[in-house]
Amino acid sequence: MVRVGDLFQALADRTRRLILDELTERDGQTLFEICGRLATRHQVGSSRQAISQHLDVLEAAGLIVTRRQGRYKFHHLDTRPLRSITERWLRSEPTEETP
Amino acid sequence: MVRVGDLFQALADRTRRLILDELTERDGQTLFEICGRLATRHQVGSSRQAISQHLDVLEAAGLIVTRRQGRYKFHHLDTRPLRSITERWLRSEPTEETP
DNA sequence: ACAATAGGCAAGTCACGGCTTGCCTACAAT
DNA sequence: ATTGTAGGCAAGCCGTGACTTGCCTATTGT
Fold this sequence. Notes:
The structure is a homodimer. Chain A is of the alpha+beta class.
């Protein structure tokens, strides 16, 4: 079960938002591909392990799903959790938060 | 002016989301009203200063606007920054898996 | 078999965010 | 004028998050 708090916290980091941008443009990338594109296109100089930890956070938030194939691990975007995340404050009746 | 990072970071905190919930239900509350309702309805035991700092963050993110009147300071919700914040990743996505 | 590639695990550093404490200003009521 | 109410300012504590470093496992290529 993915909590709404994990979702917002995952989106609170700029590097993670850039990762989602990259996967939006080209879905199913590996860790090394994401590292390369972040470095060359967004000047993100973080280490591979840092990006890997970001991917873990995004996966725990339910925003990406992973698929292993041989020694490759492909990361796929899942934007379904984002669909109605702000409706809580845009609708007339707020949704309760369950801790 | 208001960066998108500030917006997500403001939403990353549970207490701040609860503040938005409270203002959604009853707009234009003062700091003390918000403190009281957070305590009685959501078991938030933070101090008044903590809530005040949360309100500063929300205002800096453009999610609330304040209006001073005498010794009261009323807080009003502004959900406009939330409207299109997730469209960045939802643009060219499959809408639903409905057959 | 051996090396290169893709990725994982764990400990440690460091800065920032959330929160408190203490004191202060401004307005209102009596 | 004095007291109480609504809010602000600033310093400090402390836990958590982002990141690095070092080493390890697994799969692929030659």
